[in-house]
Specification:
The complex is a heterodimer of chains A (817) and B (460). Chain A is mostly helical and 817 residues long. Among the domains of chain A are: 96 residues, no CATH class; 44 residues, no CATH class; 118 residues, no CATH class; 96 residues, no CATH class. Chain A has 36 helices and six strands. Chain A has a two-stranded antiparallel sheet with strand order 1-2. Chain A has a two-stranded antiparallel ribbon with strand order 3-4. A two-stranded antiparallel sheet of chain A has the order 5-6. Chain B has 460 residues and is of the alpha/beta class. Chain B has a single domain, classed as Alkaline Phosphatase, subunit A (3-Layer(aba) Sandwich). Chain B contains 13 helices and 17 strands. The chains are: A mainly alpha (817), B alpha/beta (460). The interface between A and B is large, with 114 and 106 residues.
C-alpha cells in the first residue's frame, strides 16, 4: 500500500512545487552566475533545452534527476518532488511569465483571506457545524467515512484536558454521564471555558511562542525575578477573553496607547523575554542589536508565520522578504529600551512604605560604619576616567565591564549627579560597588574593609522587608535611533539607512512608523496572515496538527493547508466575531470532527498516517506541564491558585552543578506552593527543570510554534521514580483508601473511566501479590507509605501506593485521547 | 458512521507497517545503517570547556618569549576582537617546554606527557578557527554548528542518524567533571529534534542518571511487578485503541528497566585490573573524577553507546595561567593517555573516534585582571588547536600552521564546520544529507558550510 502523499493530491503548481526545488538544488550550477554545460534553468526558454513539454519521459531534465545523476551532491530529490516534476512536464511545463526569480508574491498565504461557503456534502447528518462540512467533503472525495463520536467519558476527559489542562474529577464525569439534555455537551464546554484554569492551559502555547523564561540565559543566566508579571498578565487576559487584536496591540505597543494603564505597559513584557548576555567582553551595542533583530524575527514567526529572520544576512531565499524589508521591520524596535517599572501588587505599597524609615536608618548606619561613601566616591571618579581612557588600566577596564554587564543602565546612573539619582539607582549602584570593589583593590585593603561582611549584613537587613514589585516593560526613546541595513547582519557594518516600514507585499500599512502602527497593521483585517496563523495554532492545540502542518512557516517552504477553505472560513469567522479566542475554541470543539473517536483507523492509517484528513481524532501525549498537573491533580496535591510568582519544586541533586554558576542557586519553595502547576515552575534557561525537558518543553531560546511528543526511557524513569510522582502516588493511594478502597475508584480518578474486567483482574492480582510482599517486609512498606492510614495495615497502604504509581505511568494517563 | 472491529489491529500491525518501519516506530533509537561504510562506530569527545591555551599545550611559539612584555604592532591587532584585553596588551611568553614525540616527532607541551605519548596516533590540527569569542555562543557553534541557540548538538545528530547498538543505555551519554559548563544543558540538547536524541547525563557519584533508583520501599521485585502491570495495562489500551505509539511507550519502559540494572554495573569497576585502575589514576587525586569518566567512556563504548561526551570545566584561564593550566592538565592528561592505550590494547581504537577540543584558543597577549595576580590569556577565536585520533583518523601528523606568534592562521584554515563534517564522515554520514526540516528549511549540523578534512583521514 502506498501512502497518499498529500502534496500529490493537489494539481502541480510551478511556484509552489517546482521553482523552489530549482532554486534550492539546481540554480547554483545552472543559474545566472554559473552555467555548467552551458545550461540555465532560470527561465522556461533556456530550460527548454532539457525539457519536452507534455513528454516527461523524453525530457533530459527528468531522466537525469530520476536516475539520480542530478543533483550531483546533497540529498536526492524525494519521490514526491520527482512526481511533481513528472506531472509538471506532462502538463506542459507551465512557467508563468509573472514569476520573477524567487520573489513570489502570489503564494497562497499572501492572498487576502477568502469567505468560502461550506461545501455541500452527501452525509448531511454527519455534520454538526460548517467545520464538519469542509472535513466531510474532503473525506467523501476519498470515499472514507469519519469515525464515530467518542464515548462520553472520553469526551469529558478530552475537553477538560484541552480547555483547562486538568483531568475531570470522577464527580464531573458522573454529572456529565447523567446529563441527558440535548445540550449536555455544550454545557460542559461552557463550564470549562469559564474556568480560571482555561487561562493557564491556553497561556502555555503563547509562552512557548514568546520564549518565556525566568532567567537571562547565556553563561551568567541571571534570574529575572519579575518576569512572571507578564505571564500573569497573559493568563489573566486569556481568562477574560481579551480579543486577539487587542492582545496583539498591547503586547507590541501597549506603552504607546493613549493613557496606557499599568497592565498595558506590563503587556509589553512580551519583548522582554529575549535572552540577555552578560558574559564578560560582550559588546553591549552588539548585543542590543542582536536583541532588536531577535524581536523582529519573533514578530515574524509569532504573528505572520514567516521566517523573516532569514533575511538578516541576505534576501529571503524563498519568500518575498528582502533584506531591506527585514531591517525596516527591525527599525520598529530599534528605538525601544528596556525598563523595569515600579508595579506594586495590591497591598504592597502600604507595608513597603511603613517599613522604609526603619530600613533606611539601619542601612545608612551600616554604610557609614563601613565607610562606604568614602571609597565609593573616588571609585566612581576612577570609573569615569577608565571609561574615557579604555585600555589604560586593565583592572579598571574589567571593573567597568562588570559594571555595565551586571547593572542595567549603570552608565546612565554613573552620569547622573548623586543628588539627582533615584533611591533605587543610588542603592543599586552602592550594592554593586560593595560587591565589586574587590576587583580593583589589594588583598590587604580587602581585609581591612570587610565588605563581604557588610554584604551579609545588608542582605540580612532585607530579609522580611516588605517587597515592592516591579515589572519588566518596553519604553520608547525620546530621540529615535537611526536604523541601517546591516551588511550580512554584522552590527559593525551598517549600510543604507532605513525607516520603520511594514512588509508591503502583504498589505499596505500606510506611513506609520511607530510600534503601534506595526501592531495595528498586524491585526488589520486586510492582513492575510495574522488570523490564519492564529486559528491554525488553535487548531493544532485541539487536533495535534495544524491545517497547515508547518505552523511555524506559512511561506513558500511551508506546507500547503490540508483544507484551505476551512482555514479561511475559520480566519474570517475569528475576525468577524471580534477575534474572540473562546468563541473560536468553542466553535471548533462543538464540531463533530473534534468529537470523533481517536481510535486508530486501520482502513486509512497507512494511506494517511499523519491523519491530515481527520478521519478520526488523534491520541496526543500531554505536554510536559500537563503531565505534572495531572499527577498533582488526581492525587489531591495540586495547589490550584491561578497566576502569581514562579516556584522552585525540589531539584534533583546534581542538576544545579551542571550549570556554570547560578548566582541565585535553587532556593526550594516551601509549603503548598511546591505543588503548583507546571507552568509556574521557575524556568532557569541553563538548567531547565528536568521533568519539563524530559517531556519536550522548548528551551526558551527561540519562538516555539509546536512541541515534539517524544517517547523515551528517561520519561519512564521520571514517572516511575521522581519524588514528585512518588509523592503523588502516595497521596493518591491515601485518597483512594480513605474513599472506597476499590480499583474501580482509582481508575475513575485517574482515567475518568472504570477498568475493564481484564484490567481489574490485573490490578487486583497486583494488589494481592504486593500486599504479601510488603507484609513480609514492613520496613519497606513504611518507607513507601510512611503514615498509617486509618483502618489499613501498612502493607495495604504500600501496595496501593505501588498500584497508584502504576496508574500515573499508564500511557493513557499521560495521553489525551 | 463507522464502527470497526478493533481487536485484530494489534496483531496485524507489524504486517501493515513492514518490519523495519515497525521497529523504528517502536524504538526510535534502533541502530540504523550509515550513508556509506564508516571508519568509526563510536565517538568519545573530550570537551575542554573554556578555551584551553593552544600556545601552552599544542602550538609552540618561541617567538613569544622574544616579544614578551611588549605590545604587538597595531597592524597585527587592528581587526581582532578581544574580550577583555586591549589590542595594545603586552605579549606573554609561554613558560612551557615543548618536545617532539614518537616517530612523527609532533611537539607537545611538558604539561601533557601522557597525551604526547600517543603522538603517532594523534592528528593535531593547529589551524582551527571559529567565529565566536564568548563561551556560550562558542560552545553552541562547536556543538550545534551555529551561534544561534536551539539547534541539535552533534551527539543528538549522531543518535538521530545512527541510533544505538546499546540495549541498555541511550545513544548519547554525557559525563561531566569540574564545574558546570557555560552552555549548560544546551551543550547536549536535542534542539528541535525529539528529546529521544538528547544527551543523558551520567554521574559517577550519587544517582548515575536522574530518577534511576527505585523510590524508597520499592524493591527490585516490586519494580518488576510495577513494570509488568504497566505493560499489561498498556497492551490492553493498545488493543482497544489500535495506537502503535503505545508499543513505543512499552519499549521505553523496558529500556528504562534495563538502564536501572545496567547503570550501576557501568560504575562497578571490580572487573577492572588493578593495573588498569592505576593507569587511569582512578583511586587517587587529582585524577579521580576524570579518570572515572574516562574509564566509564571505554566501558560504554564497549557496550555500544554511540556518542560519549566528557565535559570538563573550566579552562578559561584569564588569570594565573600557569597554575590553573597545570591543574587541569594534572587532572585530565593521565586518564586520557590511559584511555587511548586501553582502547588500543582492546582493539577498540580503530572503531572509536576521539576528539579533544575546546570552543576557542587564547591570546598571545597576556591578561592582567588584577595587579597582584599572575597573568592569564584572553579568548582567541582566530586560531587554536584541537586533535583527533582513532576511528579512521590518520595519526602522527600535524595539519595547518599558525604565524610565529600563534595570533593568526598561516596555512590551511580549518573551521568548526569542517571538524563536524569530518566527525560525521568517520561515522559514515554525509554531513549534507543528515538533515531535518524545521522552520521551513533543512537544517544540518554544519549549517551551510563544512568540508571534510580529507588529510586527516586514513582513507582520505
Amino acid at each position: 500500500m502506498t501512502p497518499i502523499l498529500f502534496a500529490l493530491l493537489a494539481a502541480v503548481d510551478f511556484e509552489r512545487d517546482i521553482e523552489p526545488v530549482l532554486a534550492a538544488r539546481c540554480l547554483s550550477c545552472h543559474g545566472e552566475r554559473t552555467q555548467m554545460k552551458g545550461l540555465r534553468l532560470d527561465s522556461r526558454q533556456a530550460a527548454l533545452r532539457v525539457l519536452s513539454p507534455g513528454q516527461s519521459d523524453k525530457s533530459l531534465l527528468l531522466r537525469q534527476v530520476a536516475e539520480r545523476k542530478m543533483p550531483p551532491s546533497g540529498p536526492q530529490l524525494t519521490e514526491v518532488q520527482l512526481a511533481k516534476f513528472r506531472d509538471w512536464i506532462a502538463t506542459g511545463a507551465v512557467w508563468p511569465e509573472s514569476s520573477k526569480g524567487i520573489l513570489r508574491t502570489n503564494h497562497w498565504s499572501f492572498q487576502p483571506v477568502k469567505r468560502p461557503l461550506p461545501p455541500t456534502i452527501r452525509n448531511k447528518s454527519g455534520a454538526r457545524s460548517p467545520i464538519d462540512q469542509f472535513i466531510l467533503a474532503r473525506l467523501e472525495k476519498e470515499g472514507w467515512a469519519p469515525s464515530a463520536e467518542a464515548s462520553k467519558t472520553t469526551l469529558i476527559r478530552r475537553l477538560s484536558l484541552d480547555l483547562t489542562g486538568l483531568p475531570p474529577s470522577p464527580e464531573e464525569v458522573v454529572a456529565f454521564l447523567a446529563d441527558h439534555r440535548p445540550d449536555a455537551y455544550e454545557r460542559q464546554v461552557d463550564r470549562l471555558l469559564a474556568s480560571p484554569h482555561f487561562g493557564e492551559r491556553w497561556a502555555r502555547p503563547w509562552l512557548d511562542l514568546a520564549r518565556y523564561a525566568d532567567s537571562d540565559g547565556y553563561e551568567k543566566d541571571y534570574v529575572r525575578p519579575h518576569a512572571w508579571r507578564w505571564r500573569h498578565w497573559v493568563i489573566d487576559v486569556i481568562n477574560r477573553d481579551m480579543p486577539f487584536d487587542q492582545f496583539t496591540i498591547e503586547q507590541i505597543a501597549g506603552d504607546l496607547l493613549p493613557n496606557a494603564t499599568p497592565d498595558q505597559r506590563i503587556a509589553t513584557g512580551f519583548h522582554r523575554n529575549t535572552l540577555t548576555n552578560r558574559e564578560g567582553g560582550v559588546n553591549i551595542e552588539q548585543f542590543r542589536v542582536e536583541q532588536v533583530m531577535d524581536r523582529a524575527a519573533t514578530v515574524g514567526t509569532v504573528w505572520l508565520g514567516l521566517t523573516v529572520g532569514c533575511a538578516q544576512c541576505h534576501d529571503h531565499k524563498f519568500d518575498p522578504i528582502s533584506q531591506k524589508d527585514f531591517y525596516q521591520l527591525t527599525a520598529f524596535f530599534n528605538s525601544t529600551d528596556e525598563l523595569d517599572i515600579d508595579a506594586p501588587l495590591p497591598g504592597e505599597t502600604g507595608s513597603f512604605l511603613a517599613a522604609q524609615p526603619e530600613y533606611r536608618k539601619n542601612r545608612e548606619a551600616l554604610l557609614a560604619e563601613y565607610k562606604v561613601a568614602q571609597h565609593q566616591e573616588p571609585w566612581e571618579a576612577r570609573m569615569k576616567e577608565a571609561r574615557a581612557n579604555p585600555g589604560k588600566w586593565t583592572d579598571w577596564d574589567h571593573a567597568l565591564d562588570a559594571l555595565t554587564k551586571y547593572l542595567d543602565h549603570s552608565l546612565a546612573i554613573l552620569d547622573t549627579p548623586p543628588a539627582r539619582r533615584t533611591q533605587k539607582q543610588t542603592d543599586s549602584l552602592t550594592d554593586h560597588f560593595i560587591k565589586n570593589y574587590v576587583r580593583v583593590i589589594s588583598k590587604d585593603l580587602q581585609k581591612e574593609l570587610k565588605f563581604s561582611e557588610l554584604q551579609k549584613k545588608l542582605t540580612a537587613l532585607r530579609v522580611g522587608l516588605p517587597s515592592f514589585s516591579e515589572a519588566p516593560v518596553m519604553v520608547e526613546l525620546a530621540t529615535p535611533r537611526p536604523s541601517h541595513i546591516l551588511n550580512r547582519g554584522d552590527w559593525k557594518k551598517p549600510g543604507a539607512q532605513v525607516m520603520p516600514h511594514v512588509p508591503g507585499f502583504l498589505h499596505d500599512g500606510g506611513p506609520g512608523t511607530s510600534r503601534l502602527a506595526l501592531a495595528q497593521w498586524l491585526v488589520a483585517p486586510e492582513n492575510p496572515l495574522t488570523a490564519r496563523v492564529a486559528v491554525n495554532r488553535t487548531w493544532q492545540e485541539l487536533f495535534g496538527r495544524g491545517l497547515v502542518r508547518t505552523s511555524e512557516d506559512f511561506g513558500a517552504q511551508g506546507e500547503a493547508p490540508s483544507h484551505p477553505e476551512l482555514l479561511d472560513w475559520l480566519a474570517t469567522r475569528f475576525m468577524d466575531g471580534g477575534w474572540k479566542r473562546k468563541d473560536l475554541i468553542r466553535t471548533i470543539v462543538l464540531s463533530a470532527t473534534y468529537r470523533q473517536s481517536s481510535d486508530a483507523r486501520p482502513d486509512v492509517d497507512s494511506r494517511d498516517p499523519d491523519n491530515a484528513l481527520l478521519s478520526h481524532q488523534s491520541r496526543l501525549r500531554l505536554p510536559a506541564e500537563l503531565i505534572r498537573d495531572s499527577a498533582l491533580s488526581v492525587s489531591g496535591l495540586l495547589n490550584s491558585l491561578v497566576g502569581g510568582r514562579s516556584v522552585r519544586p525540589p531539584l534533583p541533586k546534581g542538576v544545579l552543578e551542571l550549570a556554570y554558576g547560578i548566582d541565585a542557586g535553587w532556593p526550594e519553595t516551601k509549603g503548598s506552593d511546591r505543588y503548583r502547576r507546571g507552568l509556574y515552575v521557575h524556568f532557569q534557561r541553563t538548567i531547565p527543570y528536568p521533568q519539563l525537558m524530559n517531556f519536550d518543553a522548548p528551551d526558551a531560546s527561540l519562538a516555539a510554534c509546536k512541541r515534539e511528543r517524544s517517547n523515551t526511557a528517561l520519561q519512564a524513569l521520571n514517572l516511575l521514580n521522581d519524588p514528585v510522582f512518588v509523592e503523588a502516588a502516595q497521596a493518591l493511594a491515601g485518597r483512594v483508601l480513605s474513599e472506597s478502597s476499590t480499583e474501580e475508584r482509582l481508575f475513575k480518578i485517574c482515567l475518568g473511566r472504570a477498568p475493564s474486567r481484564r484490567e481489574a483482574e490485573f490490578a487486583s492480582a497486583f494488589l494481592r501479590e504486593q500486599e504479601q510482599v510488603f507484609a513480609a517486609d514492613p520496613t519497606a512498606a513504611l518507607k513507601l507509605y510512611p503514615l498509617p492510614v486509618q483502618g489499613s495495615a501498612p502493607a495495604k497502604a504500600a501496595a496501593w501506593t505501588a498500584l497508584a504509581s502504576v496508574l500515573l505511568n499508564l500511557d493513557e494517563f499521560i495521553t489525551r485521547e | 458512521m463507522l464502527n470497526l472491529p478493533r481487536r485484530h489491529f494489534f496483531n496485524s500491525l507489524g504486517g501493515l507497517l513492514g518490519g523495519a518501519a515497525y521497529a523504528q516506530l517502536a524504538d526510535p533509537l534502533a541502530a540504523r545503517k550509515p550513508h556509506f561504510p564508516a571508519t568509526a562506530k563510536n565517538v568519545i569527545f573530550f570537551f575542554q570547556e573554556g578555551g584551553p591555551s593552544h600556545l601552552d599545550l599544542y602550538d609552540p611559539k618561541p617567538a613569544l618569549r622574544k616579544w614578551h612584555g611588549q605590545p604587538l604592532p597595531e597592524s597585527m591587532t587592528k581587526d581582532l576582537n578581544f574580550v577583555f584585553v586591549k589590542p595594545d596588551a603586552k605579549v606573554l611568553g609561554s613558560e612551557r617546554v615543548f618536545r617532539g614525540h614518537g616517530q612523527s616527532g609532533t611537539e607537545f607541551s611538558d604539561y601533557i606527557p601522557n597525551i604526547a605519548a600517543h603522538a603517532d596516533d594523534i592528528c593535531l590540527i593547529r589551524s582551527m578557527h571559529t567565529e565566536a569569542f564568548n563561551h556560550h555562543p562558542g560552545q553552541s557553534l562547536l556543538f550545534t554548528g551555529s551561534t544561534q541557540f536551539g539547534r541539535p548538538t552533534a551527539g543528538a545528530w549522531v543518535s538521530y542518524g545512527l541510533g544505538t547498538e546499546s540495549q541498555e543505555m541511550p545513544a548519547f551519554v554525557v559525563l561531566s567533571s569540574g564545574k558546570g559548563t557555560s552552555g549548560g544543558s544546551m551543550n547536549w540538547s536535542s534542539g528541535f529534534l525529539p528529546s529521544t536524541y538528547a544527551g543523558t547525563v551520567f554521574r559517577s557519584s550519587g544517582e548515575p542518571i536522574l530518577y534511576l533508583p527505585n523510590p524508597p520501599g520499592i524493591s527490585a521485585q516490586t519494580q518488576r511487578a510495577r513494570l509488568d502491570l504497566i505493560r499489561n495495562l498498556n497492551q490492553e489500551r493498545q488493543t482497544d485503541t489500535g495506537d502503535p505509539a503505545i508499543a513505543s511507550r512499552i519499549h521505553s519502559y523496558e529500556l528504562a528497566f534495563r538502564m536501572q540494572s545496567a547503570a550501576p554495573k557501568f560504575l562497578d569497576f571490580a572487573g577492572e585490573s588493578p593495573k588498569t585502575l592505576e593507569a587511569y589514576g582512578v583511586n587517587q587525586e587529582p585524577t579521580h573524577p576524570y579518570a572515572v569518566n574516562c574509564l566509564l567512556a571505554r566501558r560504554m563504548v564497549e557496550r555500544g553507546v554511540r556518542f560519549v561526551m566528557l565535559a570538563h570545566a573550566s579552562w578559561d584561564d584569564h588569570q594565573e595561567l600557569n597554575k590553573k593550566l597545570k591543574k587541569n592538565c594534572d587532572i585530565t592528561d593521565r586518564p586520557i593517555g590511559a584511555l587511548i592505550r586501553d582502547l588500543k590494547e582492546r582493539g577498540l581504537l580503530d572503531s572509536t573516534l576521539l576528539v579533544w577540543a575546546g570552543e576557542f584558543g587564547r591570546t598571545p597577549m597576556g591578561q592582567l585582571e588584577r595587579i597582584d595576580e599572575d597573568p592569564g590569556r584572553d579568548h582567541h577565536p582566530n586560531c587554536f588547536s584541537i586533535w583527533a585520533a582513532g576511528g579512521g583518523i590518520k595519526g602522527g601528523q600535524v595539519i595547518g600552521k599558525t604565524d610565529e606568534l600563534g595570533l593568526q592562521i598561516a596555512e590551511n584554515p580549518i573551521h568548526i564546520h569542517d571538524l563536524q563534517a569530518t566527525m560525521l564522515n568517520c561515522l559514515g554520514l554525509d554531513h549534507t544529507r543528515l538533515t531535518r526540516r524545521h522552520m521551513g528549511r533543512d537544517f544540518r549540523l554544519t549549517d551551510v558550510g563544512g568540508k571534510v578534512i580529507s588529510q586527516a583521514l586514513l582513507n582520505g
